[in-house]
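Hi support team,

I submitted a single chain yesterday and got back a structure, but I'm not sure I'm reading the token output correctly. Could someone confirm the output below corresponds to the sequence I sent? I've pasted both exactly as they appear in my results page.

Thanks,
R.
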Amino acid sequence: MNAAGKIVVADKLTRTFGRFTAVDSIDFAVSGGEIFGFLGANGAGKTTTIRILCGLLRPSSGLCLVDGIDVGRQPERVKRRIGYMSQKFSLYEDLTVAENLRFFGGIYGLDREEIDSRRSELFAKLGLTEVERRKPAELPLGWKQRVALASAVLHRPKIVFLDEPTSGVDPISRRQFWALIHSMAAGGTTVFVTTHYMEEAEYCDRISIMDNGRIAALGTPAELKAQFDLSTVEEVFVHLLKK
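Hi R., thanks for writing in. Yes, this is the structure output for that exact sequence:
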């Protein structure tokens, strides 16, 4: 696979647990500034793949590069290059919103001046200024979502992994969040997102659908709908899982 110009590359990437193969020799590459949707039913292998990409799990075989770094050999370097937002929002409920960002900035190695400058920028962009002194526990889910995103991108990573970021969020907040995702991508950030909402997959530049540890389909939403002669990504997803 040609890795030139690609910020994420998986080449025959495999992960086994004993006799069970969770990820089975998959290939894909993601370009800078791309919104890449990663879809699959529970147990399909997408969570294991993401854990490998984030340096949390070593591959059993194959190659995995993130921002040019071999994840299998240098997972700690990868962790410092990426942003990660989990479904459960890894925020400290006993700290204020501002204190959460200051804490995460310290973890990423930013100095106080950098943290304050970047925090002000993100608060203005995400509309968080009015809640900076409140604690996450006091905020509605849509606001927590924005705080978690701010924490994940505080250090200006080239790639951000969003694991079901809109789960449980109301439709208006979901649309607002996707507007932020597109704004990030337009600024050159690569966004790697998993979602269970099939209509959200339509917003991605390309999508991958995993099934039983393998990639069952890969392409733009338009390409996949044309390939299977179906009207929506959801119909493509259901069709592939019925095979």
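A quick pointer for reading it: The beta strands are 6-17, 20-31, 35-40, 61-66, 69-70, 82-85, 159-163, 190-194, 206-211, 214-219. Let us know if anything else looks off.

Best,
Support desk
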